[in-house]
Each structure stands twice: as structure tokens, then as C-alpha cells.
Task: structure prediction
Amino acid sequence: MKNKKTIIFLSASLLLFVIVFFLALMVGRYSISIGNFFKALFTNDPHFQTDRSVIITLRIPRTIVAGLTGIALSLSGLLYQETFQNKLTSPDLLGVSNGAGVGAALAIVIGLSSAFISVLAFAVGILTVMTTVLIAKFFRNGSSTILLLSGIIVGGLMSSLLSLIKYFAGNEVKLASITYWLMGSFANAKMETVYILLPIVAVSTIFLLSISWRINIVALGREEAQTKGINYTLYRYLIIGIATLLTASTVAFSGTISWIGLVIPHIVRLIAGRNTRKTIPLCITFGGIFMIVVDILSRTFTSEEIPLSAVTGLFGTIIFVIILFLKRRDYHEH
Result:
């Protein structure tokens, strides 16, 4: 029964993903009708040159990046929640988002181009997580609690460094750029971004699907994993590494986007339970749909783009309250 329910939701969400994707190519401050959309793509009529340029140059890369970001952050949130056996963890758990923010802020203050901003954000985000792991290793305690606490410590340090960078930025234009970057946007998405982000997300997703049964065992804890013959430490750090890579790569190009990595895993668990063989495919479709819809909303209703985190925060809190209401009996029992 549960398998049938998962298949139905997966099929429906795949169809909805395709619909939302094409809708994103037509909807915006410059709207394109369905008829003009197909004429722009499949004819050489010069009357539709502007429509063609908007679709191919601006909206296709932006929508692909939005979908990939939703997939990456949803999967990352799911992996962290299962690995740490904590449903309240999110993709920035080990300080990767704060670290990436420090890297981006430094690049903006120095005056580097958007490409170097992404590179520095990615590099510092990865270094931050490596620092978190090294601090946890220093205590010679393999528990998840120590790693969590190390993440909180390093994340707090990076947050303080970010505040200092913003304080000493001086130039109001640079300060505004840092603040806007931190709130998330797909405004700078290009096909070059797609060429980098797509292989990372695709390879990571395929690999996660191939080890999904091991993720289930790791989620049960060290003792259970060892009785099943699984190298718990190896797979835990491997899963954390993939989750960090997914988060760092998306944050590097799109800035910090909140809530999606927390909310989407909760939604898919309501449908499919805790079996990652089912929740990973659902995270892919649900995460992609959610992020594309958020992008449509952020660039459609006002003359200026609304930061992504403002939209995800608004809808994320509403959805999370609904989830808590639906699961209130389970939480009361615990």
C-alpha cells in the first residue's frame, strides 16, 4: 500500500515538475503566451526574436538552476536529518552556509567578479565543514552530538566574521551587495552555471540512490550499522561529504536559501516514511517544484525581485506549521 502511494505521488510530482518548469519559461514581468512560446522556440519568425531571447538567454538557465538548487538543498536536508537522527537539522548544519557567506562577502569587498564570488564562496564553505570535522576529531569522540556542537561553534564563528566583514565593508553599495547575496537570488544564473551545477547534482543523486539502503542503516545508529556489517564511520562521513558538496555548490551560485532543506524532507516522510529509497526520489521532484515556484513568485509580483529566502521563509513557516499539526499526535506520544 505504501509503495503504491509513493508511486502515485512520484508520478504526479514528475508531471507537475514538467508543467511548472514550462510555466516558469512563460511567466514573469514579461509574460509570453503559450502560442508565442512555441512560435518563439520552433519557428524563425523575426517577430518573436525578443520572446526567443528571453526564453533561451534568461529563463531556461535560471529555471534549470532553480530546479537543481531545490533538488540539492532538499537532498542535503534529508541526508543530514537521517544521518544525525534529528528532524530539525538543515543543510547549513555544519556551517557551510555561513562559511560560503564569508567567502562571498570577502570577494564582494575585494571587488571580484561574480564568477570569483562563487569560487570563493564554495571554497570557504567546504573549508568551514572540514574545520568542523577536524574540531570534532580533536575530541576523539565519534558521536554525532560532538559533530553537531562543532558545527554550531564553527557556524557561530563564521557568522561573527561575516558581521565584521559587513561592518568594515565601508562602501554602502558593497554592503547592500553582500546583504542581497546572503538572501539568495537566481538573477545571475547562466548556462555556464548549469554546466557546473548539473553534473554535481546529477552524479551525487545517482550515487545516493545506489547507496540508499546503506543510508537507511546508518540512520539507525552505529550499533545497528555494525551488526549489519556496515562501516558506520566511513558511510556517515561519505553521506555528510555529499550533503556538504550539494549545499556548498548551490550556495556558491545562488546565495543562502532557507527552509527548503528543512521542510521538503518532512513532507516526503509524511508520504513515504523514512525509507530513503522512496524519500530520495520524492525529494528530487518536490524540491525542484518548490524552488521553481518560489523563483516564479520572487520575480513576478513586484518591479524588483524579492529575495528567495524571504519567499521560502514565508511559505516554509506556513508549511511547517501544517506539518506539525498533522504530526501532533506523534510528537505528543514522544
